[in-house]
Amino acid sequence: MGQTEKNNPFLDGALDPVLEQLEQQRLFIKRKYFHPLTALFILAGIFLVMYLTRQNIKILLAPAILSFLGGIVYTALAQKPLSEYKNAYKSEVIKGLIDRIHPGLSYQPSLCIPESRFMASGLFLKTPDRYRGEDMVSGMVGKTQLTFSEIRAQYKTETTDSRGNRRTQWHDIFRGIFIIADFNKPFKTRTLVLPDTAEKIFGSLFGNTLQKWNKGRGDLIKLENVEFEKEFVVYGQDQVESRYILTPDLMERILNFRHKTGKPVYISFLDNSMFVALSQARDLFEPSMGRSLLDTAPLESYYEILKLVIGIVEDFNLNTRIWGKA
Amino acid sequence: MPALLLIGLLAFFFVIIPIIIYNGLIHKRNMVDNAFASIDAMLKKRYDLIPNLVNTVKTYMTHEKETLTKITELRAKALDNRDPDTQAKVDQEMTGLMRSIMVAVENYPQLKANENFMQLQASLNNIEEQIAAARRAYNAAVTSYNTAIQIFPNSIIAGMKHFTPRELFVIPAEERQNVDVGNLFKS
User: Fold this and answer.
1) Which of A106, B35, B148, B163 sits at 20 to 30 Å (Cα–Cα) from B120?
2) Is residue B179 less than 8 Å (CB to CB) from chain A?
3) Where are the domains positioned within chain A?
């Protein structure tokens, strides 16, 4: 516990001056832009309702339109200070958190891991129709090169109802943090560690049969750790090499990591690297306009997530380089 | 018509199903042999490194002469006799000896700093990991094969065609625990 408390930026108040200054900026934007634009839109609404209920007073339409247009102008005007505020939040607060956990990592808020790398991991079979991401962090953690970013990959379905209206719906293939870390052993083939849905739903006997049908992923690798087998299903191209990667020790470590996150974890080993996809249900590392920055609960949750992700190197023992890989 | 159906059913139960089962068993037995071949290949790799290791180490390690001689002897024995039983036995003994050598290295700082030795150590660590993986792969294949020949109705075919259960490779007790190899070599 000592370690966490010492490095916890919320206890020693190191971020307080930055947060206070940004809080002033947030209040200013709220006062100068958000309040007027909200007032204008409400006014537009009132005039519109009055116009609709008493149709003979045509003159009411003009103020409705005017205040609506005013609202739009204010919305447009608010964009620049708003993005400045967001940038400042990211470059000072989020970067500050990262530096606290591991100094020397670079942080690029507008970049993300490219789609080609995401697809190359082999974790997700569906090609995304829309691929977005931000908040990329990269650098060396000890001897290990680590890169991660937020990713949202989606595919769309189009349905046409009986009246001929087309409707497009977007579905998530993956939403969360995607991590690439240099692995500590040299290897040639691909191994996938996926959440075991089949075994959970259908039990081990029937579930195993289903898993074997999944040929595109590679051969099913049955491992001897019972708890690990319950949680994950492993596919590989080489029975021996998959076990060379997934030692009893690493299996325990992956299980512990899974319990620590409490969320589905997808892992693949490929090209001497380890790809980890960690599902998250929300956008991370964003400031909220409606909430005081001095309330640090959201920031603390970002801090925990960053710690978890950067901690992967320690958790998976990636800095131990005794197997002939520099 | 019912007669034809009966013949069809009989053929299904007494010819087609046995053929499917038999082929399945052959497949599993081949997997076992294949898995053994990969252990064998890894063990061979280790034996190739041993003369090198012994040569590098012997000038420094004065108190471990006996262990080194034993390693050399074991290597010769393993290379002479390549049947599974000998390999399994020698492998077990060899793994223990190699471990004791690697632990003893701690007493020789000069050796630990020797670049040649460091490279060898990395290769050996790597091969030990691969051997451990190959053993586990072999045991998984054997377990799957042994189960397949013991369950009904496979057991009938297995009995007729003389499929016999295979022995598991013994995994050294040290490996069953989650040893942090990294700590073992930290100065």
Assistant:
1) B35
2) yes
3) 1-90
